[in-house]
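thought: user wants a sequence for this fold. calling inverse folding tool.
action: design(structure=
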C-alpha cells in the first residue's frame, strides 16, 4: 500500500481521487446493468430466483381466497362423469362458458389435486406456471431489446394483484396467457405453424386471446401473402374442431353458444374500467356497439399507419405462390412482431365492455414493452414508471371507484397516444445473398 501511495504521488494523483474514480467506474457499471437491455438475461435470472421464493412465501403466509376454483372443478367433473352436452356442464357460479381446451387442462388439474380438494398442491402448480410464464415473457424481452432491465423489478416484485391471480385465486386466465406467450416465442423463431397451433390452444382456454388475432392475421398476411396464410388459419380452425368434437357431436349449437358467446352480459358491480358510467349506460346495447366500432376503427388505423411496413404493401395481398418468395425476416423484426401483437391486444382492452380484476393478467406483462418500445429520452423514464404505478394502483382498488376507473382510462389513453405518435419499431430485411459468380458490375458495386 505504501509503494502504491508513493506511485500515486509521483503520478500526481491522490489516493482519494483514485478511490473515487474506482467507485465511479463501479457505479457506471451498475447503472449499465439497470439501464442497458443487453443485461436483461442477467437481471431476469436474478428475478426468477427471487420470484420462486416470493411465491412460496405468498402461498404459505397469505390465506387462499376461493372464487372460481371449485366451480371449475364442478364443471370438469361433469365431463369426467360422461356428460357431453355442454349446456349441462355447470358449477357453483353458473354454466360453463369456456371452450373445450379449458375442460381438458383443468380436468388434468382435477385428477392431479384429488378432485380439486388439494388446494395447496394446486397453488404450487400455479406457482410453477407463474415462473414458466415469467421465463417466456423474459425471453420475448431478450429478443426485442427494448426495455431497460430496471423496469422488470416493477413487473415482478411490485405487483400484488398478479401474484394473487396466479397463486391465491387459481383463475384460468394465467393458463391461457402462458400458452399465448409460448406461441409468441414460436413466432419469433419463425415457427409459424407451431405458433398458430399454440395460439389456437390458448383461445380454447379463454376467448380473450382473440384480442391478439387481428395482429396475428396482419403478420400472417405480410409474411405469407393472402393464399400463403390460409394453411396457418386452417391449423387454428382445425384444432378448435378437434378439441370440441366430443361436444359438437352431441349438441353443436349448445357448445358454440356457450363457449363462444360474444354477447354475454357482465355485472356492473365487478367492472374495473367503467365504474364512472351509470349502470343503464353500461348495460346499453348502443354503448357496446360504440365500443365495437371504436375497436374496429383503432385496428384499421394502426394497421394502416403503425403496423404497415414500407415497401411491403404489395406483398400483403399477393398470393402465396405468385412471384418470388419473400426474403426471411431478420432478428430486428422480432420487435415488429411483438409490437403488432401487443398493441392489437391493448386496443381490444381499451375498448373492452368490462374488465374484471383477473383480467389484469391479459396485458400486465406487455405494459413495459408498450411503454418503452418507442424511442425515449432519459427524462421520459420517470413518467412511464409513474404510469405503471398508477395502473397498478387502479387494479388494486377494490371495489373500483369513479376516480380509479377514470385514472385507468387516462393511463390507457396516454399509452395509446405514445404508441400512435412515437416511432414504431421497423424491421430490417436480410440483404440478398450475392451469387457465387458475381458480374463485373456487382463487383464494382460491392
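)
observation: tool returned 446 residues.
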Amino acid at each position: 500500500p505504501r509503494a502504491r501511495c508513493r506511485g500515486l504521488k509521483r503520478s500526481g494523483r491522490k489516493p482519494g481521487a483514485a478511490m473515487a474514480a474506482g467507485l465511479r467506474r463501479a457505479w457506471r457499471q451498475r447503472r449499465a446493468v439497470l439501464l442497458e437491455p443487453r443485461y436483461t438475461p442477467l437481471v431476469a435470472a436474478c428475478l426468477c430466483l427471487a420470484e420462486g421464493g416470493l411465491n412460496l412465501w405468498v402461498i404459505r403466509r397469505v390465506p387462499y381466497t376461493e372464487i372460481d376454483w371449485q366451480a371449475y372443478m364442478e364443471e370438469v367433473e361433469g365431463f369426467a362423469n360422461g356428460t357431453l352436452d355442454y349446456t349441462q356442464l355447470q358449477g357453483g357460479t353458473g354454466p360453463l362458458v369456456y371452450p373445450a381446451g379449458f375442460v381438458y387442462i383443468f380436468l388434468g388439474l382435477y385428477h392431479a389435486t384429488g378432485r380439486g380438494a388439494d388446494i395447496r398442491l394446486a397453488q404450487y402448480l400455479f406457482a410453477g406456471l407463474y415462473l414458466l410464464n415469467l421465463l417466456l415473457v423474459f425471453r420475448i424481452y431478450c429478443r426485442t431489446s427494448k426495455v431497460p432491465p430496471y423496469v422488470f423489478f416493477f413487473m415482478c416484485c411490485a405487483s400484488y394483484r398478479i401474484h394473487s391471480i396466479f397463486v391465491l385465486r387459481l383463475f384460468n386466465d394465467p393458463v391461457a396467457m402462458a400458452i399465448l406467450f409460448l406461441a409468441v416465442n414460436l413466432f419469433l423463431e419463425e415457427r409459424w405453424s407451431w405458433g398458430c397451433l399454440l395460439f389456437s390452444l390458448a383461445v380454447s382456454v379463454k376467448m380473450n386471446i382473440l384480442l391478439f388475432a387481428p395482429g396475428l392475421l396482419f403478420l400472417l398476411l405480410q409474411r405469407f401473402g393472402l393464399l400463403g396464410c390460409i394453411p396457418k388459419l386452417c391449423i387454428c380452425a382445425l384444432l378448435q374442431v378437434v378439441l370440441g368434437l366430443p361436444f359438437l357431436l352431441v349438441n353443436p349449437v349448445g357448445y358454440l353458444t356457450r363457449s363462444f358467446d360474444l354477447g354475454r352480459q357482465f355485472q356492473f358491480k365487478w367492472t374495473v374500467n367503467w365504474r364512472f358510467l351509470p349502470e343503464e349506460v353500461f348495460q346499453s346495447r348502443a354503448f357496446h356497439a360504440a365500443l365495437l366500432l371504436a375497436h374496429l376503427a383503432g385496428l384499421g388505423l394502426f394497421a394502416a399507419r403503425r403496423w404497415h411496413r414500407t415497401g411491403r404493401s404489395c406483398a400483403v395481398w399477393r398470393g402465396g405462390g405468385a412471384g418470388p418468395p419473400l426474403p426471411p425476416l431478420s432478428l430486428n423484426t422480432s420487435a415488429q412482431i411483438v409490437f403488432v401483437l401487443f398493441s392489437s391486444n391493448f386496443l381490444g382492452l381499451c375498448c373492452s365492455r368490462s374488465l374484471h380484476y383477473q383480467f389484469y393478467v391479459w396485458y400486465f406483462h406487455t405494459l413495459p414493452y408498450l411503454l418503452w418500445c418507442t424511442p425515449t429520452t432519459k427524462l421520459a423514464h420517470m413518467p412511464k414508471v409513474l404510469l405503471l404505478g398508477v395502473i397498478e394502483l387502479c387494479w388494486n382498488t377494490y371495489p373500483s371507484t369513479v376516480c380509479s376507473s377514470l385514472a385507468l382510462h387516462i393511463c390507457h389513453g396516454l399509452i395509446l397516444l405514445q404508441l400512435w405518435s412515437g416511432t414504431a419499431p421497423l424491421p430490417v430485411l436480410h440483404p440478398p445473398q450475392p451469387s457465387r459468380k458475381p458480374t463485373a458490375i456487382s463487383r464494382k458495386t460491392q
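thought: summarizing for user.
answer: Here is the designed sequence. The beta strands are 90-91, 94-95.
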